[in-house]
Design brief:
heterodimer; A: 502 residues; mainly alpha; two-stranded antiparallel ribbon; 73% helix; B: 148 residues; 2 domains; 4 strands; flat
């Protein structure tokens, strides 16, 4: 455990280099704006910036993309409190008491408290990330190719929790992603597959093209042209934004519970920051001596969800860094970024790229601290973000997308592909096909195929090899439970409903 | 209004056919090489899965008439126009250069998303010109990307 903190100290020093610091600042500011802008969530934000970021140095790129993710958690609260518009889904619970506080003339106090809660939640999440990531990665080192193949099958089974309401549509999305992952040269024998006679498809389809199309363009396609109406109930003075130590200390219990709930819910694949905020808010209300204050502008109602969503952002990164499993849409896109710069997330990353991992973790600490000052300084501008018309915002975003995608291979062919994936993403959004399983399939499919084929080549085609490892058997059992449980639950609910109807 | 059920039926049918195509291509690549899986092993199973779940969805949609909602025609038109505008950017870049094409793209996108009066168009044009400068600076100079 002590070793982790020593490595973190080195990581903090490495993350203090000007290029990484600049990347953190740029990423954090962009994340704040993305969090504040209704419509564009952290997944879309990270996806849009992915092709631009990977053009820079690898460490700076991931530091910037990470900063976009946790910066969005800070930004979402500003419009939620001042305008009652959650810029991001995870800020929805903050609206309940935060906007009420603003309406009661305590906008500054609510914003100050949300900044303090975000910082404390983020810090606790980071400390837990530092403590747990290496432990989990070290345990996973015992995994050989068989266990890793079983783990990839388990990761794909996450479709049952990441896939939304319709499991059938989630499976279609997953298989579509697996198919896209097979486009290009076969990883074992180099045979071109599904290239449709196009040489430019020999290397497969770049991940960022799919991420930008499915999450960025599709999001904009579905946004109606609108004009915002101003609501000035959230007036505040700049001095009020400074986090107030006394009110922060008064909420110590909610800050602590929110941070812990956020982190552990964040680790669970598919649960995410939004679920963490709901659970932490409900817990804070249930354990409060004055539950009647909740919903009427309670400080605790701001502290708990804000601490939770920031802590959850770091909890979410544990399965990605330590096991190579993306537990949410945003971490799936981040994982794609890691793959694009030539790094394979998973237990070996801590062994082979230790300096990189700890520099990134160090950058998270710096970013979390910097965001306190940046949020205070930018709050007036962030508040006005909710009123930026799509007709002014989207032209710039689409131009960035076009240039960023062109820059991957200096070719317009990729921009044409992005249009196609944007249309596919829009269609999927409208027809309720979840896009995250597609990303999951595209990222994990090639790893799974290599694992299965290498293992079967080594065992001369003997499939029973997968059932000789106790770890692999354990993972397969969990996978089956994960896939079958939603079906069993729906059957039970149906039976109960039928019994009640009788 | 266009019924989403029509889209879903069309998408499910297309994906079922795609799944069958993937299976047949997988067979062409070779399912097995001796006792070990060959290049077509993985596509064979993927195609099968895609065809199966898409066909199931197609049948489900056939049974559920009128439950899927509808989408506004203007929204579909907007999606088509944005795609056309980006396509136009791709074509025009080869003739007038990426920076000039980007300015036109941004003005077009602004107009599609509601900036149609003179004042809004002026504002979008100003944003487009400023943004084109930023794009040139970042992509052309800092990243030294060979812009068209």
């Amino acid at each position: 455990m002590f070793e982790s903190w020593q490595l973190l100290a080195q990581g903090l020093a490495a993350a203090s280099q000007p290029t990484v610091l600049a990347a953190i600042m740029v990423g954090a500011i962009i994340g704040l704006f993305i969090g504040a802008l209704p419509g564009l969530g952290p997944t879309a934000g990270v996806a849009i910036l992915l092709p631009v970021a990977v053009s820079f140095d690898g460490t700076a790129a991931i530091a910037a993309l990470g900063a976009v993710y946790y910066g969005a958690q800070y930004g979402g609260a500003v419009t939620a409190i001042l305008l009652g518009i959650p810029g991001d889904a995870s800020a929805t619970m903050t609206v309940i008491d935060g906007h009420k506080m603003a309406r009661n003339g305590k906008a500054g106090a609510a914003l100050g408290l949300s900044i303090a809660a975000s910082f404390i939640g983020g810090l606790i999440g980071l400390v837990l990330l530092t403590a747990f990531a290496t432990t989990i990665a070290k345990a996973a080192i015992a995994f050989g190719p068989i266990e890793m193949t079983a783990l990839m099958v388990f990761s794909l089974s996450l479709v049952s929790v990441l896939g939304g309401r319709d499991l059938n549509k989630a499976m279609i999305s997953l298989f579509l992603g697996l198919f896209i992952g097979t486009i290009g040269l076969d990883p074992m024998v180099g045979l071109p597959r599904f290239d449709f006679g196009e040489v430019r498809l020999f290397d497969g389809i770049e991940f960022s093209i799919i991420a930008v199309g499915l999450f960025g363009l599709a999001e904009m396609y579905a946004t109606p042209p609108s004009t915002g109406a101003h609501d000035d109930s959230g007036r505040f003075r700049f001095r009020e934004l400074l986090p107030d130590v006394r009110s922060t200390l008064q909420c110590w219990r909610e800050l602590g519970s929110g941070s812990l709930i956020g982190f552990f819910v964040g680790i669970l694949p598919g649960a995410g920051a939004t679920a963490a905020t709901m659970i932490s808010y409900a817990f804070a209300k249930r354990t409060s001596k004055h539950p009647e204050r909740f919903g009427n502008g309670a400080m605790e109602g701001v502290a708990a969800p804000e601490a939770a969503n920031n802590s959850a952002a770091y909890g979410n990164m544990i399965p990605m860094f330590a096991l190579g499993i993306p537990g949410s849409g945003t971490t799936a896109v981040l994982m794609g970024g890691l793959l694009m710069i030539g790094l394979q997330p998973g237990p070996m990353l801590f062994q082979t790229q230790s300096e990189f991992v700890w520099t990134i973790f160090g950058s998270f600490y710096i970013g979390n601290l910097a965001l306190v000052a940046i949020t205070i300084l930018l709050t007036p501008i962030l508040a006005s973000c909710a009123f930026v018309r799509p007709s002014y915002l989207f032209p710039a975003v689409i131009a960035i997308i076009a240039f960023g995608i062109y820059g991957i291979n200096n070719a317009m062919f990729e921009v044409v592909l992005v249009i196609g994936f944007g249309l596919l993403g829009y269609l999927m959004m409208k027809l309720d096909y979840p896009p995250v399983p597609l990303v999951l399939g595209m990222i994990l499919g090639p790893i799974l195929e290599r694992g299965i084929r290498r293992t079967l080549v080594a065992s001369d085609g003997d499939l029973s090899v997968f059932f000789r490892s106790p770890i692999a058997i354990g993972i397969i059992v969990v996978t089956v439970v994960l896939l079958v449980s939603p079906w069993l639950v729906s059957q039970r609910t149906r039976r109960r409903a039928a019994a009640i109807a009788k | 209004m266009i019924r989403l059920r029509t889209f879903d039926l069309g998408l499910s049918a297309t994906l079922t056919l795609l799944g069958i195509y993937i299976v047949s291509q997988g067979m062409n690549y070779g399912y097995q090489d001796g006792s070990v899986p060959a290049a077509g092993f993985f596509p064979f199973w993927i195609g099968g899965g895609l065809a199966l779940f898409s066909a199931l969805n197609f049948i489900k949609m056939l049974r559920q008439s009128g439950l899927a909602g509808a989408v506004d025609r203007t929204e579909v038109a907007r999606v088509g126009l944005v795609s056309l505008a980006i396509g136009g950017f791709v074509v025009l870049s080869g003739f007038i250069g990426m920076i000039a094409a980007a300015v036109l793209l941004m003005v077009a996108i602004g107009a599609i998303f509601g900036a149609r009066d003179i004042r809004s168009l002026m504002a979008v044009s100003a944003i487009a010109v400023a943004m084109a400068g930023v794009l040139y600076l970042v992509f052309g100079l800092v990243l030294a990307m060979p812009l068209l």
